[in-house]
Amino acid sequence: MSPKLEPPPLVAIDTTAAAAHPATAGRLRLSPQTRGMAALLVTVAIWAAFALSARALSASSLLPADAALLRFGVPLVALAPALWRRRHRIAAVRPGAAMKIVCGAGVPFFLAAMHGGALTSAAFVGSIVPGMVPLFVSALMIARGRSVPRGTQAAGLVLIAAGVAALVWRYVVPVDTDVLAGSGILLVASGLWALYTVGLKEVDLDPVGSIGLLCLPSFAIIGILVLTGVLPTGLAHAAGSDIVTFLVVQGLGVGLCAGLLYAFAIRRLGAERSSVVGSLSPVAVVLLAIPVLGESPTVAVLVGVPLITTGVVLANRRPRHKVPADA
């Protein structure tokens, strides 16, 4: 077995190929890490739109079940032929790993994020849900026997927790039950997403297959809940503009594009490093919520979001191994 090589630099130049083919000299070749990071940056923009839509849902003519049907149904329609070709591989996924994905990003996560957003603000959704993922991922890794984070990684996790505390402190005295309950629900959503992040690493599926594994059972579950009357629906009487907006943001954006890109990034960067998506998402959400939703950032947001962002960056830094002097 050949020895395990260290990860390549973010941008690599293939000097051997350049020497053999002078015409290609100077041409940059993006490494797998660079492509993974690019996928994460696009995912940041899409997840910012998700956070905004989670808050906007309460003011739209759609109900949570309607948004869920669009979220999980559109990718199934768009990828139907490709999913059919992968049906045997999807069916062969271990039940434990499948449950992590279906629970972590399926109906439980979606309804928690939507309900939590309705009770709080877009800044809370964009900060708590992705921002807390590194802390939850680290907890899952420790539970599986990995070492406890130390140094800058541990400091980053502490800053994330401090940032979330800064967001909610002003709602403790006097008590605002809606915001506190919404924050707790968003913490549950973040923990579920961490479960999804780890689960993606455990399945032998490409990004398209991962979307199928998530959306097929999720759409079936939400369909059953709607048909049995457990969850109400207003899709038949919803405004066309609301349907188009959520179809683009939730169905095409979050369901299709973000699903493909995030699964791609997980395979290129790993679960822990991929959670760096949360380091930019809170900032993007806060900035976009001002013109889109008319939300003005409070002092708590201005303190909490930078703490969470800095914490996520530190939590995702890998410690450098010291090289012996006589090496």
Apparent shape: globular
- Physical arrangement of strands within the biggest beta sheet: 1-2
How many H/I helical runs?
Answer: 16
The overall pLDDT, averaged over residues, is: 82
Element order, helices and strands?
A: EHEHHHHHHHHHHHHHHH
Question: What Rg is obtained from the alpha carbons, in whole angstroms?
Answer: 21 Å
Number of strands: 2
Helix share bin:
over 70%
Alpha-beta content class: mainly alpha
Quaternary form:
single chain
Q: Biggest sheet, open or closed, and with what strands and sense? A: 2 strands, antiparallel
Strand content: under 5%
Stretches where pLDDT is under 50 for at least 5 consecutive residues are: 1-26, 321-327
Distance between the termini: 24 Å
Can you offer a commentary on this structure?
The chain has helices at residues 15-20, 32-56, 64-78, 80-85, 87-91, 95-105, 107-119, 122-131, 133-143, 151-168, 177-202, 207-227, 240-269, 271-274, 281-293, 299-315; strands at 11-12, 29-30. The chain has 327 residues and is mostly helical. The chain has a two-stranded antiparallel sheet with strand order 1-2. The radius of gyration is 21 Å and the shape is globular.
